[in-house]
Amino acid sequence: MHKELVDLINSNIPEAKAVFNEATDPKADASITVEASSILKLASWLRTNDHMPFNVLQCISGVDYLEYMEVCYILAHFDLNTPRELILKVKLTDRVNPNLDSIVEVYPAADFQERECYDMFGVSFNNHPDHRRILCPDDWKGFPLRKDYVPAKDYNGMLVYPDNKMNFEDREFIVRQNMIKKAQEKASES
Amino acid sequence: MQSRWDIGEPEPRTINKATEQLKSELLTLNMGPQHPATHGVLRIEIWTDSEVVAHAIPHLGYLHRCMEKHSENMDYRAVIPFVDRLDYLAAMNMEWNYVMAVEKMLGTEVPRRAELLRIMVAELQRIGSHLMAFGTYALDLGAFTPFLYAFDYREKILRLFEEVSGARLLYNYYWIGGLWNDWTDDQLDRVAHFCDEMEEEAKKYHELVSMNKIFVERTANVGVMSVQDCFDFGATGPVLRGAGFKWDLRKNKTYGLYNEFDFDIPIGTGEQGVPGDCWNRYIVRMKEVVESIKIIRQCLEKLEPGSVMAKVPKIIKLPKGEVYVRTECPRGELGMHLVAQEGEKSPYRLKVKSPCFTHVSMLPRVAPGQMIADFVASVGSIDIVLGEVDR
Amino acid sequence: MQDGVVLTTVDEFLNWGRKNSLWPMTFGLACCAIEMMATGAAKYDLERFGCGAFMATPRRADMMIVAGTVTLKMATRVKVLYEQMAEPKYVISMGSCSNKGGPYWQWGYHVLNGVDEVVPVDVYVPGCPPRPESLIEGVMTLQKKIANERLLRNKWVKHA
What is the pLDDT of residues B348-358, one digit of tens each? Predict the structure, then answer.
């Protein structure tokens, strides 16, 4: 299914440059990577074409690999005779201000999902009707799920990690603080 | 029959120029985070024109507990209690989804007895969750009796779970490779007895609530979400089945051993009101309770002695790759996107696609034109649990 | 003296009335709220302790049972609701999330480590979630605490 879809995409929308990622391990899922600038055209083609339509957008999940960021769109086709699923990936190399087109006009489900992606990773979506944070408060600083995120010491007068309530001898706590330091050093080098 | 309070038809009101030129604005109300009818800390900003809602904007994040950040720092096994606390009313189904994702990447084969018991426990949990939905929905609409009846029967299920897993609400029972504790024959007899009792109760609830004239008037033709709306927003579960589309992951994309079982998928047919309204979503849940009882009985017949835990390495490390696993939870279709790096002890990224998050995004489409009381009925019928929405 | 006469102090009499009719405010945030509802339901009845009427509005409530995780976004609202309650008022912190942050203490950047950062707490009930019997013991501990108070010396009542 993936190879056929890659050929269809490349023949209909050549600027997408779709590539089939075979999973390195046979038990994992395969996916298709496309160019970031073509996502809006590709989404409307995927919803409305006749050969292999996908009528539901289920999830938009961001992953932060330290050199680049990836946004995965998980699509599905709800049909009693020919159901299918797809993981579509988009690579964003700019880590400071990543940017994508919003696909809210094609799939209204993308509304809340894109707001969450912005909240957690800082990926801004052009032409989104309500572009603001959804889970964290509106005046929160930083993007929490990035690997080099360090939370601020206090928020509006409330201490975030007060010393008298933290278990400093916890082994995993120490290990994680070291990992954050390493990720920050790597981010400040590049 | 003419009653002595019958005063005939009201006179038509005079509309004069003064009332026509009155300037009026929309009133903003806060169905705030602390509210008896919002099933948790959901804040909905409602703009009303007298009693009719013009738009409704949901604000989330009052229960954002950073579960995805925790899952990046904990072992694969230690993430299971966090996954429990997402949808705390259907904890077993949440755990099953995560454990299935890890087992798919590891390639473990779960013993047959464990798979059958997993199905039985998941269906018992589904009955418990639907009972809770039924009780609190009736409470939202003003009826107190169904709440007490539902909680009484739910206590029986919690008692069974407490005997086998040690906790009443958040269990940590599904482990990677199987289950951590087996059921004895005595406990299985009690499950069979519970099924018989529950079947009688379900008929009682049907007479008490489903066909009650006040309940029907408040929920039929209210909050209609058509099949195309559901596809646009990605709604699944009782919301999609109440609209009339027969989509259930247990039949359409089988997982576990569900293909060996014989059960039906109820959909909303418009017996009262139209398909896609609150009454049909509610009746889909009630019928699913009856189907779950059927599955549990078949499970009890098929069980054979054996082990319930497969051999799993002491420190779990997954190969590089990602996987997206879907299961059918009582509130819809739960999806978990698990990304693993080679040689790491914890997931690199665990994204949870919760069904209630997508259902809340449908509220701005449903709200305009309804009265506030109808809006409360719509919010209750999609059965939100905020732990899942905010993660 | 005839039967039917009771001798007591004014303090004891007032405290007896107050502790046997504590009206809680529904402040269920997360999973502990479900156990609070189960405590109020038929099997573990909270109504026999006088806490039957679960008020939705803080103006009429005596005590606030904070059940569930308090996040930073919600903490300002908890404080506002606490200030809207009338004296004398009490707070029971139910569950480990509102005691000290619960299982989310380590990397919960958005979780308030304990509700006692924003409101003064009288009784802490441990558990995740606490059994209904534990919550009932928490309410009984609060009743014992109230029985030892001297209401007429309370600064709010003296200058009322």
Answer: 999 999 999 99
